[in-house]
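U., I forgot to send this yesterday:
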Amino acid sequence: MFENPAHRAGPCDGDHRIKVVAFGSYHSGKTSFIRCIDPDPITTEVKSGNGTTTVAFDLAIKEHRGFRLYVYGTPGQERFDVAREVVSFGLHAGVVVVDSTRGMTNFEKLILSELRKHGIPCVVAANKQDLPGASLDKVRADAGGFCEVYPVSARTGEGVGTVLDRLVDLVAR
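Result:
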């Protein structure tokens, strides 16, 4: 899925742009995470039985620490592999958004494995830390020590800035 090694071309391709792609299972909080970054993002949501769902991508654009971040949120249903592949082309870094009340799904573990396999800098955002039953320790255990895990609440915005800081550090080094 991650064919274009843009992250190896140097940080931000010399123009201080960083492309980050947010992955995660259905209802992990990717769109809410995107809205924390940019309150008026580009979204492709449709109504579903549980509210709304992303069917192509979300896009937040934000100036952060001297870089222009383009953070894309991908659909969480596995049937949208093609959309994820298109959106992921040329990414510099990835973030796997996990609903920490349920732990990492097999799908999220697969995405994390693919990011690692291709040498793409990534972090895990253990989302929904503001909810009862959230377990940062479970998400860390599920990630298997292969990636840094950060506590986040996309509802309140807590921890999102820390994730962005770390992604910039990983790409700009």
